[in-house]
From TrEMBL:
This is Oxygenase. InterPro entries: FAD/NAD-bd_sf (IPR036188), StyA_sbd (IPR041654). Gene3D superfamilies: 6.10.250.650, FAD/NAD(P)-binding domain. It comes from Wenjunlia vitaminophila. Residues 146-255 form the Styrene monooxygenase StyA putative substrate binding domain.
Length: 418
């Protein structure tokens, strides 16, 4: 039986670990917190997972919270000027629902399942010396923790990493008491992009106390919504989030006015530069380790892709490892394994996320406005969140976008959402 060690207990690390156990590998998982510490700790993210990533969890029998978690049936897009004039305001219909589960719930549950299935869980903040020890006792070591000392082992890929500093200042809260958007005809995520200010994401979710809502501000650094530096009190963080909602996205104010935090650890603030790193790191001993998930592709939440990217990475790695059989886990295998993920998901996710961080190009703004009148356009765009490669042939090229929009107008908007 081949032995594999995974360092990091997030979406990529745990999904891969559980998949390998199901495929009869001996798996060691190194995590810096116990399941109870994760469950009772600070929130680590907001996230939305679309159909493909949810299906990958279903295939492994890991969708334990699906029945309790509110479905997200559409994505609403609002594009506004700094003074609050909405130039675009619509909701596209997803072909398959998405969902959001607080990672405190999911990762704690998956860690417990990992040990119940026979996995070996080691609680330790791993460093380079730990990787050296793991490499001596395992056939393959995978590093799936995106922050801290270990991530710096993997060289930055400048070709795919245009940013050196955080592009957004993030502030989030999980809340009870969130109402629906009455002008939307289905439950969904609402994303409001306000020029010069940033973006507000509002979505239904599921947390330690049950169904809830989540609010995420992505503030332009130095802009009017970048007000959270040094604010540590959870209640004050929520107050500032709601103050920004009322001031910059008043169309979201009514349904957020009476929300309360789900718990005292239900807020987070921070920021990080999106980055892509090379997949293989060499330890001082010469041993090689393979990166996975956020350690290699750390995406800003602007594209709502982070957890999806990690799930798709875990799926690609699992298939590559199983198909490799008894072959050597050498550099060629590691680079080929990452390329499988990058070519099928990572590259498209990175391009889309980085595009959504930049000022929206004129042709994209025009598309958002056309979608006000033609639901077909709205539906096509929002379904690409499940697979951003679907944007490749029309979203990035002004000429192709214009040709598509002209065709929609000529047909009168017939299609998926019409």
């Amino acid at each position: 039986m081949r032995r594999i060690a995974i360092v990091g207990a997030g979406q990529a690390g745990l999904q891969l670990a559980l998949g390998l156990l199901a495929a009869d590998y001996e798996v060691t998982l190194v995590a810096d917190r116990s399941p109870d510490e994760v469950r009772q700790g600070q929130v680590t993210s907001t996230q939305i997972m679309f159909h493909t990533a949810l299906d990958q969890e279903r295939e492994l029998g890991l969708n334990h919270w699906e029945d309790q978690t509110p479905p997200i049936e559409g994505l609403g897009i609002t594009v506004a000027t700094p003074d609050g004039v909405r130039r675009a305001d619509w909701m596209g219909r997803l072909d398959h629902y998405a969902q959001s589960v607080d990672q405190r719930v999911k990762m704690a549950g998956w860690m417990e399942e990992f040990t119940e299935r026979g996995g070996h869980l080691v609680l330790r903040a791993a460093g380079v010396a730990d990787l050296e020890a793991l490499s001596r006792g395992h056939d393959l070591v995978v590093v799936a923790t995106g922050k801290g000392e270990l991530s710096t082992l993997f060289a930055r890929d400048p070709l795919h990493s245009p940013f050196l500093t955080p592009q957004r200042a993030l502030s989030a809260a999980y809340v009870h008491g969130l109402g629906p958007r009455l002008d939307h005809d289905r439950p969904g995520l609402s994303a409001s992009f306000v020029a010069g200010v940033g973006a507000l994401f509002v979505l239904p979710s599921y947390t330690t106390s049950g169904p809830c809502g989540a609010l995420l501000w992505e503030a332009v650094p130095g802009g009017p919504a970048d007000v959270f530096a040094g604010v540590r009190d959870p209640g004050e963080r929520l107050r500032l989030i709601l103050e920004l909602v009322e001031r910059h996205t008043p169309w979201e104010h009514a349904r957020t006015a009476k929300v309360e935090l789900t718990d005292e650890r239900a807020t987070l603030t921070g920021g990080y530069p999106p980055v892509v790193r090379h997949p293989v790191a060499e330890l001082p001993s010469g041993a090689l380790v393979l990166g996975a998930g956020d350690v290699l592709v750390l995406a800003d939440p602007a594209g709502a892709q982070g957890a999806n990217s990690a799930a798709k990475c875990a799926t690609a790695y699992l298939r590559s490892i199983v198909e490799h059989g008894d072959g050597p886990f050498d550099r060629e295998f590691m680079e080929r394994t990452f390329a499988r993920y990058w070519d099928t998901a990572g590259a498209a996710i990175t391009r889309f996320t980085n595009t959504m961080l930049a000022p929206l190009p004129e042709h994209v703004q025009r598309m958002f406005m056309v979608a006000n009148e033609y639901p077909e356009v709205a539906d096509r765009f929002v379904n690409a969140f499940d697979d951003p490669s679907l944007l490749r042939d029309w979203f990035y090229q002004p000429e192709e976008m214009a040709r598509y929009l002209d065709d929609v107008r000529m047909r009168g908007g017939a299609g998926a959402g019409a």
